[in-house]
Amino acid sequence: MRHDPFVPSSTVVELLERDPHLEALQTAKAEGGRLVLVAAEAGGGKTALVAAFCATTKVRVLSGACDPLFTPRPLGPFADIAAEVGGELAGAVDEGARAHSVLAALLAELRSQPAVLVLEDLHWADEATLDVLRIRSGSSSAAWRRRLPSTASSWRRSRQMRCGSSPPPA
């Protein structure tokens, strides 16, 4: 069983100089149905920031992580979430359904009970996971749609360089 830093615990970590970031996350949650990308260098406090935010939220937190492997699990973070919630999402992930079907099942789950959805280590994401995010971002703001393809490309390049292969041509 993997450790989930986003599940509230009795341990309280005080973050320094993160109030504006926490306020931005609270604002996005209050607006409902938002995609938020928390980005920083390795060790930059992304997980600690999101964990602190999740500890204060009054809704359930669903989290999944991408695998640091050459061949990560297809739909890895959604498989983590599906193992927790079961139902239609678990069926879609277990069947290896197409991205549209996985997204439909995920959205149905999120509509059934409000939640904060946390996807950790997206720089290790497999193509199927990125497809789900691309489709979802297509129904959000134009600014997110413009950023996701270049970000996804950076994630793939970063993963390949860390694993010792050369990045694809730009």
Radius of gyration: 16 Å
- Total domain count: 1
Order of helices and strands: HHEHHHEHH
Strand order of the largest sheet: 1-2
Beta strand count: 2
Discrete helix count = 7
Shape: globular
Q: What is the structural class?
A: mainly alpha
Helical residue percent band: 40-55%
Q: What value does the average pLDDT take?
A: 77
List segments where confidence is low: pLDDT < 50 over at least 5 consecutive residues.
140-170
Q: Roughly how many Å apart are the termini?
A: 38 Å
- Main sheet summary: 2 strands, parallel
What proportion strand? Answer: 5-15%
Keywords:
mainly alpha; 7 helices; 52% helix; globular; disordered C terminus
